[in-house]
Amino acid sequence: MVQSGQITFYTHMYSPYCHRVHIALEEVQADYKAVTINVMEWPQWYNTKVNPITRKIPAITYGGPAAPPEDPSPEAVKLTESMVIVEFLADLFPGKLRPSDPVQLAYARLFVALFDTKVHEAFKGFFFMGTPASDLLDQLEGIQARLPETGFAVGEFSIADVAAAPFLARIMLLLENDIGKYPVGEGKKAFEELQKPKFARLMKYIADIKARSSFRASYDHAQVLFIWQNNPAIQRA
Ligand SMILES: N[C@@H](CCC(=O)N[C@@H](CS)C(=O)NCC(=O)O)C(=O)O
């Protein structure tokens, strides 16, 4: 299959889940229109007309006749859940994002699952609840242990890296700037820990991700920093 209809991508720069879809759209070089959702004044039309299932971003509409983003055609396919959309894009653009070898594909999906469970839990714990950094660092060490000596998570760039990149970028950004509910200084301390030789492979992986054109096209460091600095959910009391 190839893209045969319009793609409207509902997103916001702060969201790591939206960022996954953005990276995938850039990787496959889809023809798409991005629509930023005002997360401070969540639009009712989004919940009723685009994503009544989870009412979360990201979402896409695919196909159907031309229509304004806030009133998509009933004929357009509506999809939500970041990795469902990423896998859909991998189907629309065969040969990209998925390794052809079934074992490597299974490993890629396992990597995604680790991010959606353990890394995400540790991310929420440290930045949103102020739990000790050790759990986050342990999870990052576990991720590092799964990486091959060189290249991306399963060699070629794949769905695994699409899933991981937004979280790794935000983890580094938040730590370096000491943003989060943990005690002052704990973020910078964890950031320094990650600069030690022990984490060299993970840091190289993150550098490779950030150098990728799909990442550069989908990430504005200053803007994401500003948004997270002002995110009320992770401000210290
Ligand atoms: N499992 C979902 C998570 C999506 C998600 O949590 N989106 C957040 C933004 S990062 C959201 O829309 N939050 C708004 C809300 O919960 O009202 C995915 O993979 O897409």
UniProtKB/TrEMBL annotation:
- Give TM regions: none
Q: What InterPro entries does the database record attribute to this sequence? A: Glutathione-S-Trfase_C_sf (IPR036282), Glutathione_S-Trfase (IPR040079), Glutathione_S-Trfase_N (IPR004045), GST_Omega/HSP26 (IPR050983), Thioredoxin-like_sf (IPR036249)
Cellular component terms (Gene Ontology):
cytoplasm
Q: Which SUPFAM superfamilies match?
A: GST C-terminal domain-like (SSF47616), Thioredoxin-like (SSF52833)
Q: Where is the GST N-terminal domain?
A: 5-97
PROSITE patterns on file: GST_NTER (PS50404)
What is a single Pfam family found in this protein's UniProt entry? GST_N_3
Q: What is this protein called?
A: GST N-terminal domain-containing protein
The source organism is Lentinus brumalis
| Lineage start | Eukaryota, Fungi, Dikarya, Basidiomycota, Agaricomycotina
